[in-house]
Amino acid sequence: MDFLDEPFPDVGTYEDFHTIDWLREKSRDTDRHRKITSKSKESMWELIKSLLDAWSGWVVMLLIGLLSGTLAGVIDLAVDWMTDLKEGVCLSAFWYSHEQCCWTSNQTTFDDRDKCPEWQKWAELMTGTSEGAGAYLLNYLLYVLWALLFSFLAVSLVRVFAPYACGSGIPEIKTILSGFIIRGYLGKWTLLIKTVTLVLAVSSGLSLGKEGPLVHVACCCGNLFCSLFSKYSKNEGKRREVLSAAAAAGVSVAFGAPIGGVLFSLEEVSYYFPLKTLWRSFFAALVAAFTLRSINPFGNSRLVLFYVEYHTPWYMAELVPFILLGVFGGLWGALFIRANIAWCRRRKTTRLGRYPVLEVVGVAGVTALLAFPNPYTRRSTSELISELFNDCGALESSQLCDYVNSPNMSRPLDDIPDRPAGPGVYTALWQLALALVFKVVVTVFTFGMKIPSGLMAVGAIAGRMVGIAVEQTAYHHHDWIIFRNWCRPGADCVTPGLYAMVGAAACLGGVTRMTVSLVVIMFELTGGLEYIVPLMAAAVTSKWVADAFGKEGIYESHIQLNGYPYLDVRDEFSHRTLAADVMRPRRSEPPLAVLTQDADSVEEVEALIKGTDYNGFPVVVSRESERLIGFVGRRDLTLAVKTARQKQEGVVSSSLVFFTEDPPPLPDDPPPPLKLRRILNLSPFTVTDHTPMETVVDIFRKLGLRQCLVTRSGRLLGIITKKDVLRHMAQMMDQDPESIMFN
What we know:
Blueprint: H1 22-39, H2 44-85, E1 88-90, H3 98-103, E2 119-121, H4 122-127, H5 133-161, H6 170-177, H7 188-203, H8 211-226, H9 230-233, H10 236-255, H11 258-269, H12 275-295, H13 319-349, H14 356-371, H15 375-378, H16 381-389, H17 423-446, H18 457-476, H19 481-484, H20 496-512, H21 516-526, H22 532-549, H23 554-562, H24 579-582, E3 595-596, E4 600-601, H25 602-611, E5 616-620, E6 628-633, H26 634-647, E7 656-658, E8 674-675, E9 686-688, H27 693-703, E10 707-712, E11 715-721, H28 722-732
Parallel strand pairs: 3-5, 7-8, 9-10
Antiparallel strand pairs: 1-2, 4-7, 5-6, 10-11
Helix pairs in contact: 2-7, 2-8, 2-10, 2-12, 5-7, 5-14, 6-23, 7-8, 8-10, 10-11, 10-12, 11-12, 11-21, 13-17, 13-18, 13-20, 13-22, 13-23, 14-17, 16-18, 16-20, 17-18, 18-20, 20-22, 21-22
Membrane topology: Multi-pass membrane protein
GO cellular component, one term: early endosome
Subcellular location: Endosome membrane; Membrane
């Protein structure tokens, strides 16, 4: 009897930091499906089981949507409260944020809606006075201390309980979706700690957002629910289909953009995205958005704080500043990636990397010290973006809306004409200029630290400043030829908030190189199809400009920095090399480690496993002929030999191992042989030694291979692994091939 006829645990699984074999996973799922279909005809119970199996995918999507929407709502509410806690406390209920506190007050007037007796700043609470230098310094000190406390708690929790909860998480998610295994990256502890520390990190005032980390949180939810269904928990390929849909749900709740989330998953993070996954992503994003809408964390019936609606059309002449914002976004993206990668490389290669707690607390302290004096850097990123996107209505109390009103103005509230800027707007402009410089510098040092992080405010600040400049130019020079046709005196021509949105899109596009999904996310934010063209112009321009300085976006750059084996579909390979130039062993290296089909003993197999660290071994007819039979994985072989020694009677070190259907002729009274045909892959992917590397790279990309064997006339010559392909590509681009660390 072949002991492998009974399944034993862990066969067909993968080691940590290894790449999955997509072809094998696909074929295993097909076999499982075929078995379920044939059994469903046998009885009613089997038919019900097959229906449950078919519906399990939709159930998982429902659960992901519900949990990620709930977590996003909780995070939004907690961030709102803790950000305000740095400045003061609500006396009637300490768990209320500033806004909620004044909502519930009966003494709040419309003009002073931010001031109510129930909300007190720390200085007022401690000393009884809110005016004067002493009160300002006390508020300043407490703001910095709260920021230090929040950042210290965030980095300590990450360091002690879940080291994988750091950063935005998107580079690693892209790598995992391409077929790489990082155990624990999407685990329960990571989910819990990422959710808590995301609130702490954003509340500490660090220059980061919660949009990127919410994708990681949603993927953790996806992984959690995969473990409930064997269809997904036992098949790494199927699991990645669920994670692709979870990423869509994450963006759906981060930006309130369900369709944008699906497109983000398709364009930016997913490696394998069949049509079935598209529908399921759509469903998961819908449920997540619906759940967040039910929680209503901002009290405005919107999914995000910075949702806006504009009422003014844009004009052709405005395309010029929109395109200039695109150029700025592209230049900022290229500069940010280079500076951030240089800083992260320095962190990795110097002593700085050994003190993550000190680094995070140091950056948080410096950020808080510099941020407090400026009202635009003091508030949270979401609040800042919300104010920058906002259109100035008649009821706005923001400094950015301090325009000089004409005494005889009688217009509907949503159609206020362009007016000259008042002193508040000019004060806001120089504060925004300082905020822009501050954000540009601080974000470089913040992204990639040992805490959750994200990107977006720089472009919104630059855009709002350009918007105000265009608006005032149009008002004061409406007789210029470019304004004459569309901007008459007393008309509402320019919307500065729209420029802020276009700027945010341009900078996000320059840093991440997203295009289609970015535009859709942005127009879902505004609820207006009218502004698609400005957004498209800015997104495409920023991508072109940024691509001129380097093809990789921030996520691909971090993947390269960490040495993950990610074969980017967008990379082009145009060099004229052959499979023989890349395959191993090379001329100077020892011959390829192989197994024979029926001539090796258990002892020899164990010695081969112990003496090498390869992921698998080709099986040949004999070492003389080297005719290829198949390929066996290292993990499967190790488990099979170990299990055979425990379960199969008489297996000793001298027992013969064979991979053929029938045992070979044996001498008299031998120890029982060990048959391992079940774990042998009889159809490994092979190429000839004269196959162009361009074709080999394409095969690895499109089929998701781990390795490929090189033959000539059926004789085995060598092997090419994914790591070999990536190292060869790096070498061809004059990069360090040793930077690819994993296989």
